[in-house]
Amino acid sequence: MAKKKKKLEIVEDKNVKKIKAFFVRERVYADFEEEAKSLYDQSRFGEVEKNKIYYSLVEGLYLIEKGRMEIIDGRSKKLDFDNYVRRARRVEPEFWIRYCVFKDMRNRGYVVKTALKFGADFRVYDRGVKPGEDHAKWILYPVHEGNVISWYEFSAKNRVAHSTRKNLLIGIVDEENDVTYYNISWIRP
Q1: Full residue range of the structural domain in which residue 146 is found
Q2: Which of 64, 91, 118 is where one domain is finished?
Q3: Is residue 129 part of a domain?
Q4: pLDDT tens readout for residues 92-132
Q5: Any idea what the Cα angle at residue 73 is, between residues 94 and 66, rounded to 5°?
Q6: Rounded CA gap, 80 and 58, in Å?
Q7: What CATH number is given to the structural domain containing 176?
Q8: Largest CB tally within 10 Å, which of 78, 82, 91, 138?
């Protein structure tokens, strides 16, 4: 399992008003207010449902790290980076691997959303494309370099991507939390 190499630096911008969000059970949500709406419109962070925006756990951590969100737990305690990671790992044991891939793709300018309904970790939209405007280009599976998957598991992932008309992208995270991507596609001989 990859470990954090060094303490990550949280970006603070005094001019940006932070989104106040809440970590309840397995979800992070915020009221649909100006800051959250603006970030959603601009970068498609979160999913809008009934006057609230729900964020995936990786989105929540990314926004904490970027200084755009403050997350409060059920006891009205502000969660710092490390406490948030601990709680998220209880919900998702492979959280850190998923976060490394999510962060890398977001930093490269891609919109990354969950893909549970496709049986995958993430769906990735090409740069400049927002969900709802066009379809995702890739289905993305984060994997630690030390993990072993069978040909059967690999084939299943490829079939999911193929059946949803998306390319399969495997993001392999090494011990330094760097990510290498492999794009897999079907060919007909």
Answers
A1: 95-184
A2: 91
A3: yes
A4: 999 999 999 999 999 999 999 998 887 889 999 999 888 88
A5: 65
A6: 14
A7: 3.40.1350.10
A8: 138
